[in-house]
Amino acid sequence: MRHLLSAGDLSLDEATLVLDTAKELAQVGGRSVKKLPTLRGRTVVNLFYEDSTRTRISFEAAAKRMSADVINFSAKGSSVSKGESLKDTALTLQAMGADGVVIRHGASGAARRLSNWVDGAVLNAGDGTHEHPTQALLDAYTMRERMGRLDGLRVAIVGDILHSRVARSNVLLLRTLGAHVTLVAPPTLLPVSVAGWPCEVSYDLDEVLPKSDVVMMLRVQAERMNDAFFPSAREYTRRYGLDGDRFAQLPEHAVVMHPGPMIRGMEISAEVADSPRSTIVEQVTNGVSVRMAVLYLLLGGSESGIGN
Amino acid sequence: MHAQKHADDGDESRAVLEGPEIDRALTRIAHEVLERTKGGADVTLLGIPSGGVPLAQRLAERIERVEDRPVPWGSLDITMYRDDLRLAPARALGRTEIPPEGIDGRTIVLVDDVLFSGRTVRAALDALGDLGRPRAVQLATLVDRGHRELPIRADYVGKNLPTSVRESVTVLLKEIDGRDAVLIGPAKPRAGHAGDTTVQSTHAEGDNR
């Protein structure tokens, strides 16, 4: 049994298989019976150590549409608040016979640690500031649906790159899929390691926008900041927020994405967020299809269809 | 997978049906469908990927030629409903395309290339049930090779082909393989058994259980 821990583990063929599978599974959402019998009798545990609405609900909806049994576990009000370690929680899940574990954890690398302790497939649903591979897959899916291709697409990822697992996963996956990524952020919100990432880096949003097919805005993750990274929210918005004027600089065909949750008026203006060229709501819909595809490919067969 | 199949075309496999015979069988099936459905006003043809899809299209063309009106046709992927999913690595999905008329209240003719154990058809019936409620479901197959494992029979058969369980039956179609033929050959490893590591779906008979 294999896992989905990092978007960088996927080959071009595997990533394309996930996207193609998701495309077929997207039809299920429009049927009278929104359910497939494929994962009947399999148990998927949602192990969430961090607050999450859309990712947890999305994984839950995906698993239920595939007929898997879903057990939700959140750290609040569980044995974790009594002091149980991740390993002991993992062994408990193992003993209960979980076929798949979806984990969201505040510590980078938690998903990989967990994969050493359980037999079931581990799906990383966000580990600290490290990775969030299914988000990158659903972003790539959304781009492919909107733009018709990924190869050669110019993607700008703007905002708090330092604390963003979405940015790292997107950079790795989009590189595999042939897109060109430019990260745009104030120098204080870029990780030190960014020089080694397969992407361009810019500090100037206005210069990057006219050359972008896709702009992905990221939320400033105030909850992970115990330092002053920029003088004020207003100044951040002035230099890195996507407002109507900046939106007008984009090419006609360009789309705006946001992994959510977004702060209107901070990194994105309400006018842009509600524009028909914003894919924010589509991303949520596509997230369910992509997670169904990942669950099917990891749990549906005798061995995983990806990650081998 | 296809490469392996073509390798089988050599001395060991022999053709039991060639292009013109397949054409004639399909023309006959088209007429039978019209007769049995009294003109076929509410007929929708659904091919099971991959081999059944071009066959459904060809049947639709033939019916259209006779009746001078278009017949809705599409494809119905059954991968997610298979009973042997856990015996093989996760497979790539085929396409499901239901024509805009939908399936509620219509006479659905399922089209497949080879009818063997009947398990594919069982899966297709389950898939149809989740899509809606057809008035009736019928089954057309180019080749019926026997060895049913479920109480399922075809309404329209291109050719009954008595085979041994160990033999393999392969249908080649112009749209996929460049030529039309039905080949019978020695056994190939079954999907889900050692040696089959592909995640590609295939219309080779060995998978069509």
TrEMBL record, chain A:
Signal peptide range in chain numbering: none
Binding-site residues for carbamoyl phosphate, renumbered to this chain: 54-55, 104, 132, 135, 260-261
PROSITE patterns: CARBAMOYLTRANSFERASE
Chain ranges of the Aspartate/ornithine carbamoyltransferase Asp/Orn-binding domain: 151-298
EC number per UniProt: 2.1.3.2
GO cellular component, one term: cytosol
GO molecular function (one): amino acid binding
Keywords carried by this UniProt record: Pyrimidine biosynthesis, Transferase
Coiled-coil portions: none
This protein's pathway: Pyrimidine metabolism; UMP biosynthesis via de novo pathway; (S)-dihydroorotate from bicarbonate: step 2/3
Binding site for L-aspartate: 82, 165, 219
A GO biological-process term: 'de novo' pyrimidine nucleobase biosynthetic process
Recorded catalytic activity of this chain's protein: carbamoyl phosphate + L-aspartate = N-carbamoyl-L-aspartate + phosphate + H(+)
Span of domain Aspartate/ornithine carbamoyltransferase carbamoyl-P binding: 2-145
Enzyme class of the recorded protein, top EC level: transferase
Quaternary structure note: Heterododecamer (2C3:3R2) of six catalytic PyrB chains organized as two trimers (C3), and six regulatory PyrI chains organized as three dimers (R2).
Free-text function comment from the UniProt entry: Catalyzes the condensation of carbamoyl phosphate and aspartate to form carbamoyl aspartate and inorganic phosphate, the committed step in the de novo pyrimidine nucleotide biosynthesis pathway.
Family the UniProt entry places it in: Belongs to the aspartate/ornithine carbamoyltransferase superfamily. ATCase family.
Name of protein: Aspartate carbamoyltransferase
Gene: pyrB
Automatic annotation (TrEMBL), chain B:
Superkingdom to which the source organism belongs: Bacteria
SUPFAM superfamilies in UniProt: PRTase-like (SSF53271)
Chain positions of motif PRPP-binding: 108-120
A family per Pfam: Pribosyltran
Annotated Phosphoribosyltransferase domain residues: 15-161
EC assignment: 2.4.2.9
Region of interest called Disordered, as start-end residue ranges on this chain: 186-209
Biological process annotations from GO: regulation of DNA-templated transcription
A single MF term (Gene Ontology): uracil phosphoribosyltransferase activity
Catalytic reaction(s) noted: UMP + diphosphate = 5-phospho-alpha-D-ribose 1-diphosphate + uracil
Broadest EC class assigned to this enzyme: transferase
Keyword terms, alphabetized: Glycosyltransferase, Transcription, Transcription regulation, Transferase
General function of this protein: Regulates the transcription of the pyrimidine nucleotide (pyr) operon in response to exogenous pyrimidines.
The family this protein is said to belong to: Belongs to the purine/pyrimidine phosphoribosyltransferase family. PyrR subfamily.
HAMAP family hit by this protein: PyrR
NCBIfam families the UniProt entry points to: PRK05205.1-3 (NF003547), PRK05205.1-5 (NF003549)
Name of the protein in its database record: Bifunctional protein PyrR
Organism of origin: Nocardiopsis ansamitocini
